Amino acid sequence: MSILPPPPERIDHLVEGMTLLDPSAEDGLLVVLPHPDDESFSSGGTMALASDAGVPVTYLCGTYGDMGRRMGSPFFATRESMRDVRERELAEACEILGARYELLGMRDRMVEFEDRREVAGRVREVIERLAPSTVITFYPGHAVHPDHDAMGLATKLAVEGLTKRKPQLLGVAVGDRQQLRALLGPPHVAVDIRSVRQRKLDALRAHRSQTEMMFLRWAKQLEEDEQTKAFRQEMLTVERFYRLNGVVGPSG
Amino acid sequence: MGPIDLAQVQAELDARHDRDLYLHLETTTGSYTALGPEKLPPVIAFVRNATVRFDRAMVTGEGPYRVGLKLHGGWVYAQGLTDYTVNERGELLLAGHDAEGNLRVALQLSERPFRE
Fold first, then answer.
1. N or C, fewer C-beta in 10 Å, chain A?
2. In terms of CA atoms, which chain A residue is nearest residue B92?
3. CATH at A117
4. How close B104 gets to chain A, by Cα (Å)?
């Protein structure tokens, strides 16, 4: 099996009970996540489908990802070169996905310790300036990494504080699928990304310092149990989100 | 960045003794250990841009290596260091990597603050 498996012919079982979202019908897509590469993993296909249809797509990235543990495999970055390395990787991935990017410039891992209202205010300014019809962020409290949860919460607060038109707010949940479904039910919205799976893969590859090891493993078929294979196939087939508008989550 | 040479690293440490320096000290398991097979919670700690001044410094071990800095009234210690470089800003960067290239520990010294 190559790194890019053939897409499944049917996806019914992956999107059961979910509303299919057509990114090409959006008026503007804004993705707000904390690290370079979060966008490609969670929403790369959705971003490519939107930009291909002429929809303006922006990635608002909270940090430089400069406290990452992965340095390339074999390593080629240092703690001090990481910031520039990851911004270059981000620029390349966004070009592949047809998106522009802006950075909030926070230190990696420290998002939850910043003033929450100030971060929300900065996100709100960007939403007001770009007026997207949909905003994608992490599902606060269900995103594993503290930066993910904090960025998701700040974005939720930003949208709730809008006085004019509120965009649709979609949340990415991270972690064990069964556990998430037990807690949250199935995701509400799904995007069929089969037609752009190569682009998503290329964008992931552009984040070389972070994904090189994953691609090496895939190529060598190391640690590939059935669950890992299924996860990879799903990641290149559908992107699924929870609607966060009106969700009562962690308090602001 | 390349494998630690004990004599060269010792010389770089000695060249920095008895001066005010900025320290970056870090150890990390990565943030996703809870998703691994053993479901362990992540353990991460770092100090960035604390100022230190040391009387004595030593790098030792047979690889991975250990570094100890004897401060005026305290210590700095790191174990598991494998690689080092002096970058274009003159910063001494020591790091410990696992077999896949992931950073596990870092000890860095600079005369100017590290980028915030």
1. N
2. A80
3. 3.40.50.10320
4. 7
Rounded average pLDDT over B87-92: 96
Residue A252 lies in a domain: no
Classify domain B2-110 by CATH number: 2.70.180.10
Domain holding A193, by residue range, is: 12-243
Q: Would an 8 Å CB–CB cutoff place B114 in contact with chain A?
A: yes
B24–A79 C-beta distance less than 8 A: yes
Question: Which three-class secondary structure string do you get for B28-59?
Answer: ECCCCHHHCCCCCCCCEEEEEEEEECEEEEEE
**Contact yes or no for A34/A63 (Cβ under 8 A):** yes
Q: Where are the domains of chain B?
A: 2-110
Q: Is residue A116 part of a domain?
A: yes
Q: Which residues pair with A170 in a beta bridge?
A: A136, A243
Q: Which of A191, A190, A189, A193 is nearest to A245 (CA)?
A: A189
CA angle B93, B95, B98 (to 5 degrees): 160
Contact of A243 with A14, CB cutoff 8 Å: no
Q: Domain count for chain A, please give it.
A: 1
* pLDDT tens per residue across span B14-49: 999 999 999 999 999 988 887 777 788 999 999 999
Tell me the mean pLDDT per 10 residues along chain A, length 252. 77 94 98 98 98 98 96 96 98 98 97 97 98 98 94 97 94 92 96 97 97 87 72 93 82 46
